[in-house]
Write a structure and sequence with these properties.
Blueprint: H1 2-28, E1 55-60, E2 68-71, E3 77-78, E4 86-87, H2 93-104, E5 113-118, E6 127-132, E7 139-141, H3 148-154, E8 167-173, E9 176-182, H4 184-188, E10 204-207
Parallel strand pairs: 6-10
Antiparallel strand pairs: 1-2, 1-5, 3-4, 6-7, 8-9, 8-10
């Protein structure tokens, strides 16, 4: 009987030892970021695309008379002295430069055009929108590598009525809207970097109001 009790005690001892090792292993692992729930597509590479409100600097080699800076209109088009109503929104600077070259070829022999974008508003579909209890709710131009922390800094932080840990990002994934939880209070107030996550072009950050 005594041997049986001692044997059971040894088994219990080893069981607790195994449990302790497993718990220690779990505790030592880094937290999995929320962003892993929606990783970037393979081969994803962001290229800035022109949007309404941007300014484009058009430089035509050896033709300063048609080199100028023009705004992109709300309808996404630009107008220059020789080119009217040329679509610009949604294009890269290089794509727009090639389009301008084709249009100018009717007036200038072998035009060489360079387009530089300033303003950086971006197309509506690629902006990051922040709504709810942000200090300055607004639409932001997406920047490569942009994270939730960058967005919160850009909008001036949260209001005193914000329920930061109930915030969420609404994201279009494969034509469907996906809702991803974001722990803004943990990130901002507690400095929990594991609560930070990348944002994607077109994301909407929703910050609800606290009930109390």
């Amino acid at each position: 009987m005594k041997k049986e009790i001692m044997g059971a005690g040894r088994c219990l001892h080893w069981l607790w030892l195994v449990v302790a090792v497993l718990l220690a292993g779990c505790a030592g692992r880094p937290a999995i970021p929320v962003a892993d729930a929606a990783p970037e597509p393979a081969g994803y590479k962001h290229e800035y695309r022109i949007g309404p409100g941007d300014n484009v600097i058009i430089s035509v080699w050896r033709h300063p008379e048609v080199s100028l800076t023009v705004p992109v209109r709300p309808d996404g088009k630009i107008t220059t002295p020789l080119v009217e109503d040329l679509p610009a929104s949604g294009k890269t600077g290089t794509e727009l430069a090639r389009d301008i070259e084709k249009a100018l070829a009717k007036f200038i022999q072998d035009p060489v055009v360079t387009v530089t974008v300033t303003g950086f508003v971006g197309p509506y579909g690629e902006q990051i929108r922040v709504i709810g209890q942000a200090t300055k709710p607004q639409a932001l131009a997406y920047r490569e590598g942009m994270s939730v922390m960058d967005v919160v800094i850009a909008v001036g932080g949260l209001t005193e009525f914000a329920a930061g840990n109930r915030a969420s990002i609404v994201r279009n994934v494969g034509g469907r809207q996906q809702k991803v939880g974001v722990r803004l209070n943990d990130l901002i107030r507690d400095g929990d970097i594991s609560a930070n996550m990348p944002v994607r072009p077109g994301d909407i950050l929703v910050i609800p109001e606290s009930f109390f």
